[in-house]
Amino acid sequence: MANREIEIQVKIENSKPLLEYLESKAILKSEKRQVDEYFTPPDRDFTAKRPIKEWLRLRDSEGCSSLNYKSFHFDKDGKSSYRDEYETEIKDIKQVKNIFASLGFKSLVVVEKVRQSWDYQDYEVSLDSVKDLGDFVEIEYKGENDTNPKKITEEMIKFLKSQNVGRIERNHVGYPFQLLFPGEVEWERVKS
Q1: Which of the listed residues 22, 48, 146, 161 has the most CB atoms within 10 Å of its CB?
Q2: CA 143 to the chain's CA centroid
Q3: Displacement of CA 32 from its chain's centroid (Å)
Q4: CA-to-CA distance for 190 and 18, rounded, in angstroms?
Q5: What DSSP letter does each residue of 68-89 carry, written as one string?
Q6: Where does the CYTH domain lie (predicted)?
């Protein structure tokens, strides 16, 4: 499914072995500063219910802008291993913000980060340094066969473990939630 996103976001104890591995085995795709602003429409507050099911984001990535909507799918434990994602480039981010303001959309939070991204096999592996949150690893599946998101996310964790990164802690909420509701973030330590 072209509009399905399967990814994990984790903190790792030691990024050096992963970085060395990526520099020798993967293709550096980009290193960019990204500013993501999240919005909620006037007719419903995306942040009112837990778990948060939807995000609407404007991204400025060094002059290249995009609009993105995500709708999460949850298991019985309230954890998401995939989401529907719709994204398109936009020509003028300021005009889109003006349109949002005219329609009553409310800005929720701004996430600022520096992201290094590599292509490795069926994955995009990103090292993120996020303002006010710290350093993270995101791995997004880019392969063709995405019929089993749970299995794919398990393979992502297995890949990280094979890089001897030490302790791996995962959350299922993302950067905007962590900034908006830091007291509600639950970190799940991945078993060795």
Answers
A1: 22
A2: 17
A3: 15
A4: 17
A5: EEEEEEE-TTS-EEEEEEEEEE
A6: 3-178
> Domain boundaries in the chain?
4-189
Q: Comparing C-alpha atoms, which of 190, 117, 118 is closest to residue 155?
A: 190
The token pair at 60 is 């400025």
Helix then strand then coil, in percent of the chain rounded to 5, is 25, 45, 30
Contact present, 175 and 111 (Cβ < 8 Å): yes
Beta bridge partners of 38: 57, 109
Residue 115's DSSP bridge partners are 32, 128
Catalytic residue list: 38
Dig out the tokens for 185 from the structure: 């973030």
Q: Which residue carries 């995962």 as its tokens?
A: 170
Pick the CATH number of 4-189 from 1.25.10.10, 3.20.20.70, 2.40.320.10, 1.10.10.10: 2.40.320.10
Pair of tokens at residue 61: 């990535």
The candidate with the shortest Cα–Cα distance to 33, out of 64, 61, 57, is 61
Please state the φ and ψ torsions of residue 174, each to the nearest 5 degrees.
85, 170
Per-residue confidence (pLDDT) for residue 2, from 0 to 100? 66
Instruction: Give the whole-angstrom CA distance, residue 157 versus residue 107.
Output: 33
As a whole number of angstroms, the distance between CA 80 and CA 52 comes to 10
